[in-house]
Amino acid sequence: MALLDQKNNNVSITVFILCCVHTIMTRKENGWQEHREDFQRIPELAINPLGDRIINAFFPEGEDQVNFRGFMRTLAHFRPIEDNEKSKDQNGPEPLNSRSNKLHFAFRLYDLDKDDKISRDELLQVLRMMVGVNISDEQLGSIADRTIQEADQDGDSAISFAEFVKVLEKVDVEQKMSIRFLH
Amino acid sequence: TAHSPSLRPPSPALCHQHPQLPSSPLPPLRAPLAHPESRSPHAVPGPIPSVPLPSLHSRPHPFPLPGHAKPRKAFPVIGIDYKHVRIPFEISLWILLACLMKLGFHVIPSVSSIVPESCLLIVVGLLVGGLIKGVGEKPPILKSDIFFLFLLPPIILDAGYFLPLRPFTENLGTILIFAVVGTLWNAFFLGGLMYAVCQLGGPGLNHIGLLANLLFGSIISAVDPVAVLAVFEEIHINELLHILVFGESLLNDAVTVVLYHLFEEFASFEQVTILDIILGFLSFFVVSLGGVLVGVIYGVIAAFTSRFTSHIRVIEPLFVFLYSYMAYLSAELFHLSGIMALIAAGVVMRPYVEANISHKSHTTIKYFLKMWSSVSETLIFIFLGVSTVAGHHYWNWTFVISTLFFCLIARVLGVLVLTWFINKFRIVKLTPKDQFIIAYGGLRGAIAFSLGYLLDYHHFDMRDMFLTAIITVIFFTVFVQGMTIRPLVDLLAVKKKQETKRSINEEIHTQFLDHLLTGIEDICGHYGHHHWKDKLNRFNKKYVKKCLIAGERSKEPQLIAFYHKMEMKQAIELVESGGIGKIPSAVSTVSIQNINPQTLPLERVLPALSKDKEEEIRKILRTNLQKTRQRLRSYNRHTLVADPYEEAWNQMLLRRQKARQLEQKMNNYLTVPAHRVDSPTMSRARIGSDPLAYEPKEDSENLPIITIDPASPQSPESAELTSEEPKGCSGLPPSPEEDEEGLVMRVKEPSSPGTDDVFTPGNSDSPSNQRMLRCLSDPGPRPEPEEGEPFIPKGQ
Predict the structure, then answer these.
(1) Three-class SS of residue A65?
(2) Interface of B with A in 591-610 (CB under 8 A)
(3) Are the Cβ atoms of A143 and B560 closer than 8 angstroms?
(4) Which positions 427-486 of B are in contact with A (Cβ < 8 Å)?
(5) How far apart (Å, rounded) are the C-alpha atoms in residues B30 and B599?
């Protein structure tokens, strides 16, 4: 399957893809296209605070459908980083599941207006979604302020991608943002 | 009636029976008194109150007896009664020796950097044991009862209560495989090989059967948590390796217990049937899961109890200790794994208990656990040394050397094979360097010794040889491996532990990623790690937290709890470090122009404090706080709370710190309309009577609101404030900054020249700060009913 821009299309990837796609695609009537409603039908996504954003991440700009290839591209971010991939030549395009691309994916979920910065408002929105309704606005505000203060280095009171990466340098992103499937 | 005879001086008839009775043991004393010939026939004294009797007879007889020509001694002014205090005295002496040794090692830094503490302690034990033996006394041996019931639980509880849960659960599969399969492999491999050696080893060893060898193998194969902790604590390797080896040493207890009891029982059977083996296999699950269940039950009960302790804060730590110890004992009662019960109890109770108890209790628990476990560890190693000297040994070259050799080989082989298998399933693979450290870190310790000591002589007459071999292996692993692991870690450049604390960024983004991954997993229909963790968290939030956490903390999300903890820690650090004029260096100069201006908040105006009221407050505080330094405070253990002076001082410091933060925030940030709500901090503060966390209850109408007006032309200190800000923001409209308590201050009067000695922090403090402090010192016209405001006269 040459759907993905990966250097190694071994059978395991195919198996992985098919296994996870099967769950959704079996609910489909019209071929290999996904619509937003199909995602929204998944009950667990409804209670996930980031549910909407995740769904939107699958769909390219402004469109309402995603084809199989696009779907796989998004999911490919979550493949675990193989050891042999690390030593591959640096000439080719960076694989989708590299650390930097994984972090970029997460960054895009924060940054809704796509200005390459997580502003205080965007941060507040995310915090509000994660924390629920019991906390007051100014408490969240002070947390957001503190967060930006910790991360901000160039003084623009927003978190750019580089700062985002720096803050998460101690977190094991390769492990956290990978889904283990059958090998 | 029946009891009174025992309280009177004994009658002459009885006297003859017991002039030579020993003072301490009681039972012989009862026997003669149970047959009173001279008394009324029906009066057989029932339970004799035992307390007065020994003392009655231990001192020289005070009454001169008729018919007894006893030489009259002079009244003893000073006497020696060692037997009376012998046992507690000796115990205290040993513990004191252990502590002094620990002290000594750290006074001599050069030695302790090369040799790990455990080695030094064993050497000390050897010396002390040799000394005692040289004097002629019989040195005490580390009895298994004392070890398992008193010395081991504190160490395990300390480990379990402070177990880093995230890495533990993330690596649980790996840890379990190492613990269960690894230990089984070690035991059988070693046992089998030793059997072969015994068969070939000549007449001295031929009689040792397969089962005895298997039992020996199971005793010696378990990695010891005490030794691992002692050595790994000092080398600071990265979290992953630490949790792998340490987790393995904790969880293999179940396997060890099962195998030990299994082989011990089997050794007395003539034949071992398949049924026995199946039952043995079954018992493994019973032991491990049963132990965990017992621990979980006690943990839940402890969490539930802590919900109601808001009025008796003093004994909160005791609940934690007692419930955990009971869990351990209950598990040991049923031959379940006590260690797993203890770990499970600690892990389960911790999040709920910490949400319920006061800050002081938390500190108490932490320090008591560290203290006990430290002393226990020291004692264990010293006693290992002493027991080596004291015990009977039977040295057989073949047996001991081959045990040592095969132990090492078994460990290395086991780790290699298991890692190859595990790496197929891990995302972050274990490198050969990691494997080496894991294999090298498999230290044996006192548990093996105690288990060997428990062996019965009748069934196992080669017990001495076993003990010798066990001690040799322990010495080898602790000395050789323990000493060389540190240079090896440096040589191999193994990743070390990162000391930095978790930042709030990490916390937020980690949670964010958790949600993200859960969502992705749901899309894929893949029920992985994140899915179950998310389900557990929801269940926890919905049902469990409501039951086990008191008050409004139960609704506090994890992120907020983390944030509060961090703020509190910072506040305490600031206070402890003197805090004066030291604004944290993480302050960034934010250019305010980029930030969208928000609407001006409503300015709440309240009458400023009048001068004489301020003066009065200051005077009261000065006199009372000065008194504190001279008084010797006597604590009433029933009311830890009622120390108004300490409380006032602490409040003062905390307010000052908050004022500083206030100012700093105002200098840098956009402000948000001050809109008060009952934050969890405050409700927690109300529930806990901890002065550091105390803040007055907010009330929108009555509290003084303080606003600093940086651009206002009248206030002379506005110049200072603006000078701290970056250029271009002097035109910023004044905006009161919200605070945790929503306290905002308006400074109206010009700065006064005088400054208090009590409050003067130093030159760098701006007058506005002092003014804020002085105003903040007034807690408000409506003080908190429980706390009371001791330094403000009531009715103000």
Answers:
(1) strand
(2) 591, 594-595
(3) yes
(4) 427-429
(5) 89
Give the three-class secondary structure for A118.
strand
A98-174 carries CATH number 1.10.238.10: yes
**Domains of chain B: which residue ranges?**
144-494
The CB-side HSE value for B104 (13 A sphere, CA atoms) comes to: 10
Question: What torsion do the CA atoms of A118, A122, A123, A126 make, to the nearest 10 degrees?
Answer: -130
Contacts of A139 in chain B (CB under 8 A): 560, 677, 679, 740
Q: CB of A180 within 8 Å of any CB in chain B?
A: yes
Q: B473 or B398, which is more confident? A: B473
Interior/surface letters B398-415, b for 16+ CB within 10 angstroms, e for the rest: ebbebbbebbbebbbebb
CB nearest A130 (choices: B512, B522, B740): B512
The residue of A74, A77, A108, A157 whose CB has the most chain B CBs within 10 angstroms, and thus the best one to mutate to test that interface, is A157
Looking at the complex, does the CB of residue B503 fall below 8 Å from at least one CB of chain A?
yes
Name the CATH architecture for the domain at B144-494: Up-down Bundle (1.20)
In the block, which residue shows the tokens 């994140």? Answer: B530
* Residue B356 near residue B94, CB atoms below 8 Å: no
Establish if A8 touches chain B: CB-CB under 8 angstroms: no
Among candidate residues B741, B635, B287, the one with its CA nearest the CA of residue A139: B741
Nearest to A172 among B428, B505, B670 (CB): B428
- Cα–Cα distance between B126 and B642 in angstroms, integer? 50
Query: Cα separation of B344 and B323, whole Å?
Result: 12
Residues of B in contact with A39 (CB under 8 A): 523
Fold of A1-77: Recoverin; domain 1 (1.10.238)
Instruction: Please report which helix (H) or strand (E) contains residue A67, including its range.
Output: strand A65-67
Mapped onto helix, strand or coil, the DSSP state of residue A34 is: strand
Question: What would you measure as the largest C-alpha separation in chain B, in angstroms?
Answer: 110
Where exactly are the structural domains of chain A? Answer: 1-77, 98-174
Distance, in Å, from the CA atom of B522 to the CA atom of B66, rounded to the nearest integer, reads 96
Which of 127-166 (A) contact B at CB < 8 A? 127, 130-132, 134-139, 141-143, 145-147, 149-153, 155-158, 164
Q: Are B697 and B686 in contact (CB under 8 A)?
A: yes
In angstroms, the CA B589 to CA A153 distance is 10
Please name the member of B505, B513, B740 whose beta carbon is closest to the beta carbon of A147.
B505
Residue B194 CB coordination number (10 Å): 26
* A80 and chain B in contact, CB less than 8 A: yes
Question: For B543, which DSSP code?
Answer: I
In chain B, the percentage of residues whose pLDDT exceeds 90 is 15
Query: Residue A66's beta-bridge partner residues?
Result: A34
Closest to B693 measured CA to CA, from B559, B575, B554: B575
Residue with the bigger pLDDT between A14 and A128: it is: A128
pLDDT digits (tens, 9 = 90+) for B700-718: 444 444 444 444 444 444 4
Whole-angstrom Cα distance, residue A168 to residue B639?
46
The per-residue pLDDT for range B298-330, each reduced to its tens digit, is 999 999 988 888 888 888 899 999 999 999 999
Does B517 touch chain A if contact means CB atoms closer than 8 Å? yes
Burial of A104 from C-beta contacts in 10 A (0-12 / 13-18 / 19+): middle
